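Single Protein Entry

Contents — chain, fold
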Amino acid sequence: MASQSLIRKPFRFVYFNATLYLIAANIALFAAGYVFPDLKFAMALNPAAVLSGRAWQVLTYMFAHADLSHLAVNMLGLFFFGTQVERSMGSKEFLLFYALTGIVAGIVSLAIFLATSAWYTVLLGASGAVFAVLLAFAILNPQAMIYIYGIIPVRAPYLVAGYAAIEILSQMFSFRASVAHFTHLAGFGIAWIYFMARFGINPWKRLFNK
């Protein structure tokens, strides 16, 4: 019971725009990559490197991006959904959620790479944590409407369900093989467990009970 109460112990609510600090850190590290070309590969998660002692990569891979478009997509998602989730959770809770979901998604990806002998695969980008934030947004705002391309209205839970289906099918049929679909799915899965363990919330009921 003591461990359960520790898991559920809330932070005092504070709000200090942690989302913007995360975005700034991602942009700064991306820019630093032009000055220090080896920085991206030092930060990206690589199974062989992690086993050789670069354990920090399960965290730093979230702050490394392949190119400007990769960075822009992730940061836009983090801005639009992260700011809303942070206002609901509070900044301290949001930082814990973001860091934990991203790190565990990295560890899950690492385990899959090792199990499939993909020793020299490189994983980079914030998308595992951003997908977790997207699910959090839908759980906290199940009636919210999101406009795809600014035109097509989709309720947040169905957008999440659609993304999950796309990621599963893409992984099964090797669509866009350069994208770590299982990392995105891990982000969803870890966020789901987080809400159950940390808040005692059943995500399914919040998402799909009318």
